[in-house]
Amino acid sequence: MATSARADKQIAHDRRRAGEIALSDFAEYVEQQQKLRRPGGATAGDTAEDHDELDIIESLGLADDSQPNSTLKDLLLGPREENGPRLRELLLSRIKEGRGETLFEVGMDNNNAESMEFTKEEYEQAMEAVKTAATEIRAAVTVLITSNLGVDGEEPTDGKGVASTVLIRQKPESLEGLLEIRVAVVGNVDAGKSTMLGVLTKNTLDDGRGRTRVNLFRHKHEIESGRTSSVGMEILGYDAESKIVGSNDPGRKLKWDEIGNRSAKVISFTDLAGHERYLRTTVFGLLGTSPDYVMLMVAANNGLIGMSREHLGIALALNVPVLVVITKIDICPPQILKQTVDQITKILKSPGARKIPIFIKNKTDVVNTAKQFVSERICPVFQVSNVTGEGLDYIRTFLNVLPFHGKFDTTTSFEFHVNDCFSVPFVGTVVSGVVKSGVIHAGDPILIGPDSLGNFITTSIRSIERKRIAVPVCSAGQSASFALKKVRRREVRKGMVVLPRTDNPPKAHQRFVAEVLILSHATTIKPKYQAMLHVGPVSQTCRIIDINKDLMRTGDRATVAFEFCQRPEFLCTGDKLLFREGRTKGLGIVKSLGYDTNTPLERDEQEKQKGS
Fold first, then answer.
1. pLDDT (tens digit, 9 = 90+) per residue, 355-405?
2. CA–CA separation, 416 and 288 (whole Å)
3. What's the CA gap between 519 and 17, in Å, rounded?
4. How far is CA 598 from the centre of its chain?
5. Which residues form a coiled coil (predicted)?
6. Contacts with 180 (C-beta within 8 Å, 6 or more apart), sequence order
7. Are strands 179-187 and 163-170 parallel, antiparallel or unpaired?
8. C-alpha angle 322/280/214, rounded to 5°?
9. What are phi and psi of 372, to 5 degrees?
10. How far apart are CA 336 and CA 344, in angstroms?
11. 206: phi > 0 → left, psi -120 to 50 → alpha, else beta; which?
């Protein structure tokens, strides 16, 4: 009996490990295939990410093969009249690339990280040149970290090699230029997700009983139970000088329009449910809001348990960068905290995650990790207390420096995914969501759908709001709300899309073909299997009608034909999908739209050999 139990346990472990290894390979494949989502290949985000700073320097005539440091050094220390315009042009190029902000090394070569060997006087002169150039382009300079300057507890040096990392952030001319970064907050129930957001956004500490989280709840039962059951939204604003936009009265929270008008950068938090009962809502929030980053909360006294593992697995499957925050360190015994840290390290280094945990100990770690966080391998780990405030300043600095890395294209046709619907008095029907591509203006004619029959409704946009502030235009990568003309609330729902009105009407599909990977399943999957499918904001039950092999197990990849059970949906080739049913999870990517039952999927080569 004991031998049989050990054998079953070993089989389950082997299957799980096979699924983990297959996940990391498949996630990279999905990222490559997503470029097929739009005609033309790479998106504007890809172009910006691949853009090398050396190209900027060469285009400005700053490159010198014989002395790689001399020209940039001369630019910072040379005559202001001659070098001022060139320095402004360099900073503008960097700021445009970073969507309104950039990190700049003063005293270090920005290409090969070699020191310029500045003395303190030369460093101050270079810093003055940077500040002057930034002021002329309506930007502010914030010094993040310094080296060899003899401040902040540094040891005095021989006076050479003085350098610093500064954040240069431009004040947006209007709300359309406001930099927005979306962060999804996940973790097990009672990990302190809502409390953490309350502490960050209200700029006050918690009392240990969840006082700061009350304002984040949307329903009465959430206040009574202390548990989030819906998708909550909260924002944290930073001005051009990197100061948090908040009220002068401790504990008072500013309205969204006040924060938006005074900010140069906004962090939009999506507070998701941690209880297993609300997993569908959490998965919808992770896929529908298109987060740039995922913040995984782990209670120090509980460790990575329950739904925390589920949420981490989903984030890894979606290939979204993850940062881990260990909370409640003020009430956790040291030996239990060490166990939690060891457990997180082991899980992050596992074959399924392939992450490099970076434990944040000081401000230098914060800045250096934030600079490299666009790399999918790095995972910063913070240890904080919402009651004593320990470690919170590191989180605030990290969010301030966090770069925008979204891959959105403003040059293609407009597409908007509906995440929520409202009926506002004296305004009418309002839909909110994320602009996936293109640009839209107030008054533009649009189509919204599909309805239960796959048809689209013709209407136009009455007005647009971002962060509860009216704006005339909205572009790819931004979250917004649209007031629609002559559309009733019951005619719209979550999961719909807003598209421009064209001569060729869009088509919704009941069936589609996808390439999938089974992450975990106890037995086998065959045709007629049903599961809950998530594609962006779409959440609907679907059934498998064809597979290019006889069956699928954990770790298997296959081409599968799906059919929606309720109504057709609007999909695009290259869309990521996630399907789940109980503990079964699968990841996939849409390969083609439509499916003809008279022409079944071509069988896999191995299946053909088995048949022969």
1. 999 999 999 999 999 988 877 789 999 999 999 999 999 999 999 999 987
2. 11
3. 10
4. 41
5. 113-140
6. 265, 266, 268, 477, 478, 479
7. unpaired
8. 75
9. -95, 5
10. 12
11. beta
The predicted structure's pLDDT at residue 28: 67
Distance CA 65, CA 68 (A): 6
Question: What are the DSSP calls for 507-559, one per residue?
Answer: --BSEEEEEEEEEE-SS-B-TT-EEEEEETTEEEEEEEEEESSS-B-TT-EEE
Map tokens 């993040």 to a residue: 144
pLDDT at 366: 94
Contact 358, 369 (CB under 8 A): yes
Question: Of 3.40.50.150, 2.40.30.10, 2.30.40.10, 3.40.50.300, which CATH number belongs to 511-593?
Answer: 2.40.30.10
Contacts of 216 (CB under 8 A, 6+ apart): 194, 197, 198, 228, 232, 234, 271
d(CA 485, CA 130): 49
Measured CA to CA, the distance from residue 373 to residue 183 in angstroms comes to 13
Neighbouring-strand partners of residue 532: 541, 580
- DSSP codes, 196-246: HHHHHHHT----SSSGGGGGG--SHHHHHH----S-EEEEEEE-TTS-EE-
d(CA 126, CA 163): 10
Q: Which helix (H) or strand (E) holds 84?
A: helix 80-97
What stretches in the chain show pLDDT beneath 70?
Answer: 1-25, 27-28, 31-32, 34-70, 110-113, 150-159, 209-231, 250-252, 605-612
With CA atoms as reference, report the closest residue to 385 among 196, 227, 185.
196
HSE-CB of 439 using CA atoms within 13 angstroms:
7
Instruction: Report the amino acid identity of residue 364.
Output: T
Q: What's the CA gap between 361 and 383, in Å, rounded?
A: 9
Six token digits for residue 224: 């009574």
Describe the chain by its helix, strand, coil percentages, rounded to 5: 30, 30, 40
Q: In what order do the strands lie in the sheet with 163-170?
A: 101-106, 163-170, 139-147
Token pair 């203006």 is found at 441
Token digits for 526?
Answer: 């065959």
Contact 516, 558 (CB under 8 A): yes
Q: Tell me which of 3.30.70.360, 3.40.50.300, 3.40.50.280, 3.30.70.100 is the CATH number of domain 176-401.
A: 3.40.50.300
In CATH terms, the fold of domain 415-500 is Elongation Factor Tu (Ef-tu); domain 3 (2.40.30)
Radius of gyration (C-alpha) of the chain in whole angstroms: 26
Q: Which residues contact 564 (CB under 8 A, 6 or more apart)?
A: 510, 511, 533, 540, 541, 542
Distance CA 480, CA 415 (A): 12
Cis peptide before 500 (omega within 30 of 0): no
At 313, list the tokens: 């697995």
466 phi, psi to nearest 5 deg:
-125, 125
pTM for the model: 0.86
**Residue 420: left if φ>0, alpha if ψ -120 to 50, beta else—which one?**
beta
Give the model's pLDDT for residue 359.
95
